[in-house]
Amino acid sequence: MTGETSVPTRGTLERSLAQGIQALYRSLLGHQTSQALCNLLDNKLIIVIENAITQPEKALVHNGQEDLAAQVRSQLESVLELPLKELIKQVLGVGVTDLLSDATLETGRTGTIAILESAPKVRDAISKSKTPLEATDG
Q: What does R_g of the chain's alpha carbons equal in angstroms?
């Protein structure tokens, strides 16, 4: 039983990743995001970052230079790719085989899907008192 409780819950892993991602943005880009949401689905990790667009990118967009802002965003995603993969491996204990990212400059959101080598071990947080409905003979 001790081994089972040492395995983190899905929610614990998702929160740790979200906090780590916000720390990456602060340390590498000097930018404070408003929120990072992580959702672990088997061997996939979905990441949505609110207020991910930096001030220089916003300035470029406001001055009609959307193409340049998109190029800057692409370069920033390249800078973040390796540290993000390392963070995911550190927190989840499994490597990343593919990282798919996109950003919407108008809304300031960034979305990333990480395809993992395998599903990480997680502890089920659902209480054992909840059971599926059983069919009854009528």
A: 19
Sign of CA dihedral 100, 78, 30, 15: positive
Please give the torsion angle defined by the CA atoms of residues 113, 35, 9 and 45, in that order, rounded to the nearest 10 degrees: 0
pTM comes to 0.84
Question: CA dihedral defined by 92, 95, 100, 102, rounded to 10 degrees?
Answer: 50
Give residue 132's identity as a one-letter amino acid code.
P
pLDDT digits (tens, 9 = 90+) for 51-70: 999 999 999 999 999 999 99
Is the CB of residue 87 less than 8 Å from the CB of residue 24? yes
Taking alpha carbons only, the member of 10, 18, 64, 20 closest to residue 42 is 10
70 alpha carbon, distance to own chain's centre: 21
